[in-house]
Amino acid sequence: MLERLFKLEKNKTNVSTEILAGTTTFMTMAYILIVNPNILSVTGMDWGAVFTATAISTVISTLMMAFYAKYPFAVAPGMGLNAFFAYTVGLVWGWQIALIAVFIEGILFIFMSFFKIREAIFEAIPKNLKLAVSAGIGLFIAFIGLVNGGLVVMNVPAAPVTIGDVSSLTVALMLMGTVITIVLLSLKVRGALLFSILITWIIGIILQLAGIYVVDYDSGMFSLIPEGIFSAPPSIAGNNILSAFSHVQSESFNIDLFTFVTIVFAFLFVDVFDTIGTVIGVSEKAGFADKSGKLPRIKEVLMSDAVGTVVGAGLGTSTTTTYIESAAGVAEGGRTGLTALTVAVLFGIALFFSPIFAAIPVFATAPTLVIVGFLMMQNVVKIDFSDLTEGIPAFIAIIMMPLTYNIAEGIIFGVLSYVILKLATGKHKDISIMMYILALLFVLRIISQAFFGY
Q1: Which candidate, 324, 326, 273, 294, places its Cα nearest to that of 127?
Q2: Which residues pair with 439 in a beta bridge?
Q3: Closest C-alpha among 320, 342, 319 to residue 329
Q4: 3-state secondary structure of 308
Q5: Could you tell me if 66 and 118 are in contact, meaning their C-beta atoms sit under 8 angstroms apart?
Q6: CA torsion 116→118→121→127, rounded to 10°?
């Protein structure tokens, strides 16, 4: 049955490889079950309700990716987007306004996917720029791993970033985990990334730096007292889209239509290009794209992501997006929807065993992100740097992603520099109509940020 559904032999994979890949992806992104509720709860949303909404929306949207798009991509509430939801919109106008904006954005997403607008955007991006996006995401995800592991510290007085506390045991464990990962990969051990996470976690437990944490849904805090490993999912009542609409109808909100439309556009914009950037990066690494750089079934991929956003907002969480951590599963050999199915099943299990899954410390998963970043950076050698009108935009896209801590910003400046350089050197024939449209939209986006802050 699995062979018939996912065509494993045709994709040169098997059941054990796909399950291992899905488990690895899950292990690298399970943190969202804890981080997303922590972020969204600052707006007044119930921590437990957001935890449940995060898990269920991930399960539903990733199942759609598994059976409809049939790619090894996981979909979950996105980092960065949840921060915008909470700190930029939620704390100012209320989480209800933020949730309604995400819900409307998701409907617009479905419209764009149905009429292949997002597909046209994906296919319009030149081959060298797609390779740059993949490499840039690699650099970005490695940077995230270094920050999560504590080896790099951001926002310090002396410099934007600096070295962390290398005397810290958690940093030492992160470095040890990185070495373990490299050694296992060098020895071509199947499941190297997953085993490195487990080994590092066990070492942390031995050193009493990790353990079984119990989640207190009322406060969102953790306790080292092992009160149990099983927990029924908290209710989402009062924190979903119906309660948001009901609250807005009964209360007076100080927000004008233009501001609300701008907020919806901001969610839409970042989500579109975060998703496209992630799909490009992971697809290039896995070899899914054809010789011209087009991805088969891209419409199904983008539709799965769009439906996930609507489902997530309906349940009570911020925008869902295709997860860059999917690259970890791809690096383990995941090639079909069976990998995504495995991720969905494990998130479903995590919904009931939250104390166990919440125990995975970041110092155990950080090394995997660093090594996956290295693996994705390998695409940089395929970029044609001999042509400056191709190489410079590629370089800008790569460097802007980690420096702005945003995939979408890397795409924006990559596309804008590509169009500007091609026009300035008389190579306008290399620019497609869609690239002109994207450049114009990006300019409008920059103007919007400059004058309205979105």
Answers
A1: 294
A2: none
A3: 342
A4: helix
A5: no
A6: -100
Short-list 87, 63, 92, CA closest to 75: 63
Strand, helix or coil for residue 77: strand
d(CA 16, CA 105): 38
Dihedral angle sign, alpha carbons of residues 198, 203, 205, 211: negative
Backbone angles phi, psi at 386, to 5 degrees: -70, -30
User: Contact at 8 Å (CB) between 144 and 132?
Assistant: no
With b for 16 or more beta-carbon neighbours within 10 A and e for fewer, the 221-241 pattern comes to eeeeeeeeeebebbebeebbb
**Residue 207 CB coordination number (10 Å):** 12
Q: Are strands 214-216 and 161-163 parallel, antiparallel or unpaired?
A: unpaired
Fill in the amino acid letter for 13. Answer: T
Q: What whole-number distance in Å separates Cα of residue 363 and Cα of residue 338?
A: 28
* Residue 153 DSSP SS3: strand
Q: What is the CA radius of gyration of the chain?
A: 21
Rounded CA separation 357/365 (Å): 12
The tokens for 368 are 């995997």
Buried b (16+ CB within 10 A) or exposed e, 249-265: eeeeeeeeeebbebbbb
CA dist., res. 337 & res. 66, Å (int): 4
pLDDT, tens digit, for every residue of 357-390?
A: 656 787 888 898 888 888 888 889 989 999 999 9
Q: CA dihedral in degrees (324, 329, 334, 336; nearest 10)?
A: -50
- Classify 214 as helix, strand or coil: strand
Are 319 and 85 in contact, with CB atoms under 8 Å apart?
yes
Backbone phi, psi, residue 36, to 5°: -60, -50
The first and second tokens of residue 144, run together, are: 């995230």
Query: Other C-beta atoms within 10 Å of 274: how many?
Result: 24
Q: Give residue-wise pLDDT tens across range 79-100.
A: 767 887 888 789 888 999 999 9
> Coil, strand or helix: which one is 412?
helix
Between CA 340 and CA 344 the distance in angstroms is: 6
Q: How many CB atoms lie within 10 A of CB 123?
A: 16
Q: What is the pTM of this model?
A: 0.73
What's the rounded Cα separation, in Å, for the pair 99 and 319?
9
3-state secondary structure 315-361: HCCCCEEECCCHHHHHHCCCCCHHHHHHHHHHHHHHCCCHHHHCCCC
Q: What pLDDT, in 10s, does the model give residues 16-72?
A: 999 999 999 998 888 788 788 888 988 999 988 999 999 999 999 999 999 999 999
